[in-house]
Each structure stands twice: as C-alpha cells, then as structure tokens.
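Bug #77: duplicate submission created two jobs. Keeping one. Sequence:
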Amino acid sequence: MTEAQQFADRVFFGSVLTMEDAAPTASAVAVRSGRILAVGERAEIEALVGPDTKVDELGTSVLLPGFIEAHGHPLAESVLLSPSILDIRPVVVADAADVLARLADAIRGSGPEGVYANGWDPLLQVGLPEPTRAWLNGLADDRPVAILHNSGHTAYFNDAAAAACGLTRDTPDPVGASYGHDANGDLDGSAKEAAAVMTVFGPAMRITPADSLEQLRAESERLNAAGITTAAEMGFAESSRPALTAAAAAGALTVRIRIYEMSDPQLRSLSHPGHGDELVRQVGIKLWADGSPWVGNIAASFPYLDTPATRSIGLEPHHRGPANYTTAQIEEISDAYFADGWQLACHVHGDDAVDSVLDAWERVTARHPRADHRLRLEHVGAMRADQFRRAASLGVTASVFVDHLYYWGDVLVDDLFGPEHGATWARAGSALAAGLRISFHNDGQVTPPEPLRNIEIAVTRRSRSGRILAPEERLTVAQALRAQTIDSAYQLFSDHEIGSIAPGKLADFVVLASSPLDADAAAEPAGSIAGIPILETILGGVTVFQAHA
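Kept job's structure:
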C-alpha cells in the first residue's frame, strides 16, 4: 500500500455520536473512498491526515449518522411539491379562507390542463366546505379540478377531472380502493385509497424526463436540508424505475433510496429482493390494511366521537372505519410475496386492523419460516401495548408516526377519539417496552421532513398547543435518536452499511449545531431539539447540504 492510499480523504475532529453501543461517542472520524476508515480519538486519527486530506474542525457542533426517513414517498413528493401542483397543505396554508382563495386564483390562471391541488385538511384548516362533485363543478366546469387530501388517502374531483383520467360510473373499483357513488350510481367526486387516488391524479403525474430529473433533484435537496441521507420509497411502481435510474445516473439523487413496491393484483414483482446498489436498492413490498384517521377509514375497535370536526369530514355518529382488505386477503397477498423472499411493510392504524395483519402474518411466517424477516407495521396509531408484545413475539417491528402528536394531537383527543384512544396515539414507549426496534417517519408530504421534531415529540409527546399526551409513552433522547438512525437502518435491511458511525460503513453524516442529548426537551417554549440548526449533510463523504453562514 502506498503512502497516499493510507491517508484519509476527509477527517472530522470534535464531538461525535456514533450510535454504536460499544463506543457511543468519539472525538474523530476518518473517511476514505466514501466509507468510514476509522473512528476514535483525535491522536490516533491525526496519523491519517495527509497533505490532501480535508480537515473539518467541528468546534461546538456535533457529528451524527445521517438521519433516515424509514417511511417516505420521495417519488410522489417530488411531483406533489413541484410547481405543477398547487400546494395547500396545512403547514403552508393554515387558514381555510386562504386555501379557498389560493384555489380560486389558481383556477382563474389555469389553462385546459386545470388545477391539481395537494394538502386539503378540514381538521386543521377549520371551515373548509365539503368538497363534493357539485361544489367542484361549480369552481370549474370546463377544466379538471382535483384535490388530494393531506393524508394522501382520499382525492376529490370534478367531472372534467374524471373525464381526464377516463373515470365513468361504470369504472370498477381497484383492489383495496374505491370510487364514491351517489344514490343514483353516479360518481360523487371522491376516490379512496392509493389505487383510486393515483388514477384521479394520473394526468398531473405525467411529466417529462427532464421535469422528473429536476423534481427528484429538488426532493433530494429538501431531504438533505433536513439532515436525511436515506429515505424509503413506500409507494414504488415499476413505471417509476426509469426516472429513478436516470436521476441516479445524472447525479441528481443525493439521498439513498430503499424501495418498497406496491402490491398489485398479480401478486408478484418483476424485481427481486436486494436488487440495486448502495444508492438505490429494492427491499420490500408495501400493502395497506386500512386508511387514514383524518378521513374516517381506520379499522378500530372503538368509534369516532360525534363532534363538529367529525361531521365536517362526513362521518355519522358512532362511525367506525372499514378495513381495506379482509384478513384472508391480507394473508393471500402476504403469502405470495413472502414466499418469494420479500420483506413486507403494511400500513395499519386501527387496532382491529393490527389484529388482522398479525393473524395473517403469524400463519404466513409459520408456513414459510425465515430466521430474519423484519416484517414491518407502518404508522400504528391505535396499536395497543399487548399488540406490540404480540408483534415482538413474531419478530415484527414497527415504524411509528409520532409527528401526528404534534400536528393533530389536540384533534385526536378533542375531536376524533377522546383521551382514552387519542392521547395514547403512537405508543412508542409501549413498542420499546415490548422489545421492538422502532423507527420514526414523516410519510412523504403528509408532514415535512423533520427528524429532529420527531425526536423531540417522542421525548415530550407535546402537541402544538403544549398539551402533553400520555407521558408514560415518552422515550429518552437516546432512544429517540436510535429510531431516526440505526434502528431505521435495521428496518431497511441496511444496518450493515448505514445508521451508525463505524469503520467500513458508508460515510453518511449530519452535522448539528448542538447535541440533542444536551437539550432540555421539556423546557418552554418547545423546540429545543426540533430547532437545532442543521449545519451540514454528508453523503458518502461528500457534502450535499451546507447551511449558509
């Protein structure tokens, strides 16, 4: 080995949180050829500094593994947050009147392609009208108008939008999804669940290769700015592969992607587990047991409250949401893919739906024993402590949507489910107590990419109003950090290469202005962790985001 080959390309000196149990802290890290060469103390790493080595003195900042978005939708988000889609998400437009004004302005300025909007949420944007077909036709009867609910689980459309995507009253419902009909059998202007929603928004998702490249570049930049270096794509379709491949080849993709392909009626994938490389790799299959709490379609053992809020989303008193599939159907889908070696990730919120999935998976894993399957339950809003224990006994893990507590915590308690079921939403503490390795996520455009807020909310369980929800479910900062790094990597079958700072792993880092471990998360005002500045994000040893000085 020559002298030049012994030197590092880049070294970091200062405070390092490795997320490695054997050595959780260090004062120096060396990188060569995109991987971590050495981790240790300054004196030993200094020997790896050569004349061409880039030296980073961290000062009062801290180096951590790059954050991981374990359940994201970067492909869809790249389009839905592009200029071609009207952004009316509650994090952007909080007031109902402003939503309606934006929508009216966009329609007035639109051409025959119409307006496709993303982010409708009457629970947070209080006062929005019911988006019926008649109301949407009244906004525009000569061009498409379609609105995607902020959850992504329901879309609303006018007659022109139905025509644009070929929908008629006789169009059959896709498997696991549906189109709404009125008493006369005509379309009522609503579509529920992924397959139906994607059909309605299909015309807006038809983009040129050049547009796709720039949209994926912008999406990478969004994620990098949040300190994210790896994201799961939880709604992959084979038709998206050319765009993803082109973005990777062009250097536009500066975040690693782990692909979960949507299950389809054929119950098979054209790919195979592990297909891809360090940047883009296919790891699993996604299925949906139920829907979203914000539109009334989670399968739970308890009813929704009867409140003005539940009436505003069209729910009758004592409403209980349906499942998307029967237990037998979940078992059939799971068996087909699991037998082919796939990891499975199932969207599930209601406790009845959780039972259904665990019943199906218990039988599937018994028929096809596998030592390390890491089957995943996604979101798990109303999952109970005993269900987490059952999941642990089956080797099943969970990705917990703790950010729901921040944005919708008050809605969950006051408007939807009451304190018994609302305050205990997203029981991360119960999951850890049961022995699960959990992850956190922001679910694409549903909430912004904000891993530091996820960590703070898991530690405080504090809503935007300051209300503390089920404090017994709180985590420590150290536990929450694991859920955003090494345990997310574990769920993605990538813990051998990312998620912690150890020799041989990929050099994916985030530099924070201060350590979350030093923050007083319980202090007022909120934001001691969520507000920590992200100074730099590094992928394979190369800076992909740097905050302005």
